[in-house]
Design a protein that fits this description.
Shape: extended
Order of helices and strands: EEEHEEEEEHEE
Largest sheet: 4 strands, mixed
Distance between the termini: 51 Å
Strand content: 35-45%
Number of helices: 2
Helix content: under 10%
Length: 184
């Protein structure tokens, strides 16, 4: 649905949001998303996963409200106590009508510190140049007039602020896990 609305997930054909407003678990959606045991009402770009579970609904008994259609659980990999790991990934791409080359780079690591302690982490950087170059943003939301004559320089200067590219999207995300295992 684009950058402003999350990509709503529909399971079993149940959709309680016919206008397509999106917005996560608390906004009337019928499918809840979880990262492990934690509910997350946003779209995630996940890389270091053990598995993805799709639980057909209704799942209200186990997962609460917002799970009439079901629940989706993204289960991340746990720290490994035996092996070290360093994984580097990268991608470069361009989009028609875009203004340059976009990139997506990341790394995942796993370090066993001792027999009872291990650390695993993942960090990623997405630089998406988008497909529309828009060099202005509204100067003051709610006050500036967004629908002006673009050929009138005075109206443009009074209502818009110039930026390099309002649609450029740069995202840095990460996940770290620490695991401790008691010795019996």
């Amino acid at each position: 649905q684009g950058g402003r609305n999350g990509n709503e997930t529909i399971v079993r054909g149940i959709n309680a949001d016919p206008l397509g407003q999106g917005g996560g678990n608390d906004n009337g959606t019928t499918v809840a998303t979880y990262l492990g045991e934690i509910p997350v009402p946003i779209d995630l770009r996940l890389n270091d996963l053990s598995r993805v579970e799709v639980l057909l609904g209704p799942q209200g008994t186990l997962y609460g409200a917002g799970t009439l259609g079901g629940a989706i659980r993204f289960i991340p990999n746990k720290p490994d106590f035996n092996d070290s790991l360093l994984e580097i990934r990268g991608d470069a791409f361009s989009i028609n009508e875009g203004s340059g080359i976009s990139s997506d780079f990341g790394l995942t690591f796993n370090v066993p510190v001792s027999e009872t302690l291990a650390i695993r982490g993942s960090i990623d950087r997405l630089d998406n140049k988008g497909f529309v170059d828009y060099p202005y943003v509204v100067r003051q939301p709610g006050v500036s007039e967004p629908d002006i004559d673009p050929n009138d320089p005075a109206a443009v200067a009074a209502n818009f602020s110039p930026v390099e590219d309002a649609n450029g999207q740069e995202t840095v995300s990460g996940r770290f896990a620490l695991s401790w295992q008691p010795i019996n």
